[in-house]
Specification:
- The protein has a 5-stranded mixed beta sheet with strand order 2-1-5-3-4, covered by helices on one side. A two-stranded antiparallel sheet has the order 6-7.
- Strand 3 and strand 4 form a beta hairpin.
- By secondary structure, it is α+β, with helices and mostly antiparallel strands.
Length: 256
């Protein structure tokens, strides 16, 4: 099913010149499809559009059965993670000007659900296993004894120790880019380890040993093969592989 509103070969002269791009989307409806299949849609766009705008166009004007997750469109909720031209990205952060072919050539953008999680419908995947792993590492501050009479003070240096891993938005881009996770969904995955890191190295937390014991399991941190896929996929720029290595070192040397 296609619709065309402009000449796809026309080279845009500026950011306000309308263009047409083709979205090649992997569709799957369990009620009618035995397996996923590709469908293409010609969609009007401008260079300043985000890919999410084009997905809305498909749903609003071409096929209302098309399903995908999205929320605020500010690049911080992680809802619209998907494979865009084979790379895990957030649709709300990808600008059309960065995807357009040069020289006025027709632009075809392939879009598929993230890997390693069961596809429920179109780009909509089952996130339950992902969040089960996240909850398993106890992603909250653990303290013992009496509560202090004032806030728990932390130096800037102590905060800097884990600041990078506080940026995680649980989009699953890193976890679903991991070959180990693709082959064996029982692996905790990079996102769970990143969120464990955030508390393991927090000077206010007293549950580091508990989390390290959890990640020392056969499906824990040692399954990482250091391919750097996770770091490359993170839309927030978190040094995911570095965080995983720091957790490994904490286990090896018994200190954080």
């Amino acid at each position: 099913m296609t619709t065309a509103t402009a000449d796809p070969a026309a080279a845009p002269s500026d950011e306000h010149t309308p263009i047409t791009v083709t979205l090649k989307i992997l569709r799957f409806n369990p009620e009618v499809d035995s397996e996923p299949h590709w469908e293409s849609y010609d969609v009007p766009a401008q260079r300043t559009d985000r890919l999410l705008n084009l997905l809305f166009y498909v749903k609003d004007y071409i096929d209302g059965t098309f399903s995908f997750r999205r929320s605020c469109a500010h690049g911080v909720c992680g809802s619209d993670a998907m494979q865009i031209n084979g790379i895990n990205r957030l649709a709300c952060k990808v600008l059309m000007k960065d995807l357009l072919e040069k020289g006025g050539k027709k632009t075809v953008i392939t879009i598929a659900p993230i890997k390693g999680l069961t596809t429920l419908k179109d780009l909509y995947v089952d996130m339950d296993p992902f969040f089960e792993a996240y909850r398993a590492i106890k992603p909250y501050l653990i303290t013992y004894g009496n509560e202090p009479t004032r806030e728990r003070i932390q130096s800037q240096a102590d905060r800097d120790r884990f600041d990078d891993t506080t940026k995680c938005i649980l989009c699953a881009c890193c976890t679903s880019s991991c070959p180990v996770y693709w082959n064996d969904g029982s692996y905790f995955g990079p996102a769970a380890i990143v969120n464990a890191h955030r508390f393991i190295f927090d000077s206010r937390d007293e549950g580091s040993e508990e989390r390290l014991d959890i990640l020392n399991d056969g499906e824990g941190v040692w399954r990482c093969r250091t391919t750097f896929n996770c770091t490359d996929a993170c839309p927030r720029g978190i040094q995911v592989t570095k965080a995983i290595q720091e957790v490994k070192r904490a286990l090896l040397f018994k200190r954080v």
